[in-house]
């Protein structure tokens, strides 16, 4: 799930410069593309003038893409959001190679070019976006529904198949939407402007890079102080033979949460309803990127769900909880989840339906996609990815999705084929929506498929979830990759080479992200029908487990996995029907549906200057499934960034995005590292037999 559809980057004025193009991009007649292509070759294309597709660009892109995939996985499992990779990637790579040029003479003789940076960005974007192929939505939702975890090999082959399906589907869409229709793709346009700025005037770029790295260091150190301070000093005390030393110093760790108010009332709000502050900068930084409208909506949602509805539900005993279960866990998993999902789904589908012109153009242009000119008449034949890549790649990747669906999830072949065909249709719609508005309607993509298969296979949760994984994952990955292709088109890069770079990025993202997911989420086999108990970890976070089973980190305060919870809720509702809903949620869902539709209509028809006063449906909904402290911190980050932009717009423009990206990367990567460190004994126990058997089979 990406940043929600509510002006996701309101602080980046380089995107705002292209706001006029985000309304209705006029289509260019198909007959005009030959003249435009010749002009582009003559005045823009630079791929034959400087190094472009180099080993160092691909390696750096794979490294950054892998790292950013971990960051997106971490923040996605915590909040349901994903953050853009392209701008951050080109700034990091530029800073790294500029530093190398300063200290190593060989690099000064061969500077890092804008074409290499663009290739690297395409590779990194494909790696960083790998979580959209199901890692934060369908795959954890499947585990929560069935209790059966996927193996590393199953997860890797599935995600590669879905991501490559999206990659090959982007081949014909790139030519139509970027070359011919000239859609703005605002993030891609902003990335191109960033690339030009970096490689023409390096002063500001290096200051932004220093800000990014400095904030990353701060975020990492704070995460150590919060999560690892006690165990580190306990270990030091044990090695020094003085446990009291470790315990004494360890108690000075930074608190994970801080109450709003002193005394019992503030403590009760925090412990029972998670309303307070958090010892973290991750959500503070995420809020700064999202903007004040979404931040304020999150605060409103947290107050509504956990400050008003939650206490009322407990007081009137509509919800009952066990001593081992916190109020927040009971409220969020058994009640507020339902109206929150209804609000987001109704708003998302209404907005999707209101884009009927976009949808109509998407279907209308299908006749152009397969009607390209013959190669001898096409001036870009040697530069564009050939159409046979799309035909062969889509068939092979689609076939893999169908076969793996049969093998892993008992999806009948005809249903798998239908999902692949539906993926292309939705990819066309998603790509055009992204090109016109910078919004990829991931939630709507998945829900359309879930509703379709809820009718075709109403009792099969695996079919419902994993067919939706194919359609939404491929469509979203396709749209994400076109952002990097748009940047390449504007700076004059070779489209075919960018597509190859994105293939390497997909491989890097999967290789890095899947093992990390398996370790930090930890999904042991359990029976989903067994009565669940909720215990508290040493940090106070609730952890779901079943009698006699190990613990999983899903649906805990550490990893609430809101996107997965939403996918699970829709699948369960389609399977079990309305009668299984908890008391009172039916009425709440009806109110939420009306509210979601109303918000979508206001966003569509209100004058642009008044939309900022309309709450965000996504912000309100997400607040019902994540911790109240997360929502509060995102509001504070959004508020701080809004004040900064009002008071110091030039410095805000320069540092807010860079600093926020650094804070998110630093804390998320350190959080993953700490989880890996804590799980090292379990990891070693699981990995060693595999390595031993592999070694014996060879020798």
Number of domains: 2
Question: How much strand content do the residues show?
Answer: under 5%
Structural class: mainly alpha
Shape: globular
Tally of helical segments: 28
Mean pLDDT, rounded to whole units?
76
Strand order, sheet with most strands: 1-2
Helix % is over 70%
Largest sheet: 2 strands, antiparallel
Q: Return residue spans where pLDDT drops below 50 for at least 5 consecutive residues.
A: 1-35, 372-376, 530-549
Seen as an oligomer or otherwise, the chain set is single chain
**Beta strand count:** 4
Rg, rounded, reads 25 Å
Task: Describe this protein's structure.
The chain contains 28 helices and four strands. It is mainly α. It has two domains: 13-221 and 354-521, no CATH class; 252-348 and 534-698, no CATH class. The protein has a two-stranded antiparallel sheet with strand order 1-2. It has a two-stranded antiparallel ribbon with strand order 3-4. Strand 3 (533-536) and strand 4 (542-545) form a beta hairpin. The chain is globular, with a radius of gyration of 25 Å.
Topology record:
Blueprint lengths: L12 H4 L16 H11 L11 H25 L6 H18 L1 H5 L4 H15 L9 H9 L5 H29 L5 H13 L3 H38 L3 H8 L6 E3 L3 H11 L2 E3 L3 H9 L1 H24 L11 H28 L1 H9 L1 H4 L17 H23 L3 H25 L4 H15 L4 H31 L3 H27 L11 E4 L5 E4 L16 H15 L8 H21 L11 H6 L5 H20 L1 H30 L1 H19 L1
Antiparallel strand pairs: 1-2, 3-4
Helix pairs in contact: 3-6, 3-22, 3-27, 4-6, 4-9, 4-10, 6-21, 6-22, 7-21, 7-23, 8-18, 8-19, 8-21, 8-22, 9-21, 10-11, 10-27, 13-26, 13-27, 14-15, 14-26, 15-20, 15-23, 15-24, 16-19, 18-19, 19-21, 20-21, 20-23, 21-22, 26-27
